[in-house]
Amino acid sequence: MNLLDTDALSHLQKNDPVGAVIVTRLAAFPDQDFRITTVNAYEMLAGAIDVIQKRKKGHKDPIPGFRLFQELYDYLVGWRGRVLSYDEAADRVYRGLPHRLRQELGNDARIGAIAMAHDATVWTCNVKHFKRIPGLIVYAAETGKRAS
Question: pLDDT tens digits for 79-128?
Fold first, then answer.
């Protein structure tokens, strides 16, 4: 099983040039069980909510923020049945990580913990962060190569 980090997932959602490369790498990988996490959904939707709030505070039209929220929501619904939760097992793994590492990595540590709780790998464009999690198998999403 493979989990996508939020940065890789965002490129896929935007269908940008990096996302196109990631699609090719994912398609070529033997294990086609790719999933996302509730942490990914949280990060993406929270970003859209931030856009809405900032636009409202700045007395700007909030419609672009609501459009972004709708686009992200619609995209994430497409992952239904392939979303892993941050649950008790993941929380135990997360709390077993050094405190400083949890602080520095934030939600990346939670995504890594979910992966470890499910014996999954993480595909990311942010290899540097995830390689710091002991025992986690990490793939560079842009190259499809194992980084740890």
Answer: 999 999 999 999 999 999 999 999 999 999 999 999 999 999 999 999 99
* Cα 116 from Cα 122, distance rounded (Å): 9
**Minimal CA–CA distance to 122: which of 16, 26, 44?**
26
- 2 membership: H or E segment, kind and range: strand 2-4
| pLDDT tens profile 57-79 | 999 999 999 999 999 999 999 99
CA 37 to chain centre: 7
Q: How far is CA 67 from the centre of its chain?
A: 21
CA distances from 64 to 33, 47, 71, 72 (A): 33, 13, 10, 12
